Amino acid sequence: MTEDEARDWLIQKGVSRETYARLETYVELLLEEADRQNLISASTRDSVWARHIVDSAQLLDWVPEMESAKLWIDIGSGAGLPGLVVALLSDWNVALVESRRKRVDFLHKVSCHLQLDNVSIMGSRVEVLSFSESASIISARAYAPLSKIFETTSHVAGSETFWLLPKGKSWQSDLDAASREWKGSFHVEQSVTDSESAIIVAQGVKRRSKR
């Protein structure tokens, strides 16, 4: 996907001019901060709309129908991908979980600048966090192998929780490894930004009993 195709994709999805302008502001802040800390790979600076914005936004296509938008937990948020993009494009209440102080500061800066009242920022590891309700959605991008993600987030998930997990070209081996330890409903959707990448959609994830 080219940068022009990425921008067209967002327009075709019905993103309003106001929201598009806020995404542009976010991209400006992201690239500015990337000069100070390693928020994104240097090789993706010239393809930020495709590699990061649309790659995050596409997760909303796989959210199941719910009576109301509840809690979306994004772990290892880093630069706010996908969590900040989700918050900009929807009315989900998004909890950004990030333990690195400089990245937490950046997330606060963006959230305040864009006046995102549907965002909360947790400067901690997800393993030690608790929430008043189970997550409806859990996302993680470039965070850890699937098994590690399920292990560290199982305590904030419920039976109805969906995991939306973008993965690169090694997604099949990652899923195979996780399936040996975890069971549940898993299906795979191809990424719109890269034909070799995928989104793992999982529900009802539980650790397999040891024999």
Structural overview:
With 211 residues, this protein is an alpha/beta fold. The chain has a single domain, classed as Rossmann fold, CATH 3.40.50.150. Helix content is 36%, strand content 24%. It contains seven helices and seven strands. Strands 3-2-1-4-5-7-6 form a seven-stranded mixed sheet. Strand 4, helix 6 and strand 5 form a beta-alpha-beta unit. Helix 1 runs parallel beside helix 3.
Strand order of the largest sheet: 3-2-1-4-5-7-6
Shape: globular
State the CATH topology. Rossmann fold
Determine the structural class based on helices, strands and strand pairing. Answer: alpha/beta
Count of distinct structural domains = 1
Largest sheet: 7 strands, mixed
The CATH architecture assignment turns out to be 3-Layer(aba) Sandwich
Number of strands: 7
Kindly report the average pLDDT value. 91
Low-confidence stretches: none
Oligomer: single chain
Gyration radius (Cα, Å) is 16 Å
Quote the distance from N terminus to C terminus: 46 Å
Quick structural overview:
By secondary structure, the chain is α/β, with parallel strands linked by helices. Helix content is 36%, strand content 24%.
Highlighted features:
single chain; 211 residues; alpha/beta; Rossmann fold; 7-stranded mixed β-sheet; 36% helix; globular
What is the fold's blueprint, element by element?
Blueprint: H1 3-12, H2 17-34, H3 48-57, E1 71-75, H4 83-89, E2 93-97, H5 101-113, E3 119-122, E4 135-140, H6 146-153, E5 157-167, H7 171-179, E6 182-190, E7 198-207
Parallel strand pairs: 1-2, 1-4, 2-3, 4-5
Antiparallel strand pairs: 5-7, 6-7
Helix pairs in contact: 1-3
